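Inputs:
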Amino acid sequence: MREHRVCPWYLAYTFDNPLRNLVHQPEKLLLPYVKAGMRVLDIGCGMGYFSIGMAKLVGDSGHVTSVDLQQKMLEVLMKRAKRNGVANRISPILCKENSLEVNEKVDFVIAFWMVHEVPDQNALFIQLSSILNPGSKMLIAEPKMHVTEQGFKASIETAKKHGFSLVETPKVFLSQSAVLMLNK
Ligand SMILES: C[S@@+](CC[C@H](N)C(=O)[O-])C[C@H]1O[C@@H](n2cnc3c(N)ncnc32)[C@H](O)[C@@H]1O
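Outputs:
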């Protein structure tokens, strides 16, 4: 069985700190996929590094749902969102290990450095296939430090089993990444 480990909130500061912007630029990375007015979802949002970037891209007419297992992550996310003036565009949701607890349809999903922490990836992609609007896209990025190329391919194959197609593989620092589309 695959080892399963969740990144504790205090370790998130090791990568989610002011230097991160040198290597991960949420608005630049997501600009091709996230447009004004979209409803988008950040799963395993952590302290909201990508949620805040997406909230800026979707604007006042859009919305971001940010889901995490750890209440502390969501608390830091909302503090940061207030500081950035985008708290009114973000809904935090405390989820369960194998249940995202999302009851709405969205136009885009990001799962950044989280899929390898989910114990049942089949259950994850089944849920995502019912949350995403058909024809919509999802970006997965996994840390090279924790996920082998083979492990990443296995996640993509799991996604394909549940109605996703591989669209492209953007370059993301220290990561293996894929953009998937939910088939119509
Ligand atoms: C390595 S952190 C990445 C956080 C954020 N995406 C980022 O890039 O800054 C992984 C996050 O996924 C969350 N997580 C782990 N397992 C999860 C699950 N089954 N469902 C939802 N979130 C989960 C953890 O609590 C943690 O906040």
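Remarks. The chain is about 30% helix and 25% strand. The longest strand covers residues 132-143.
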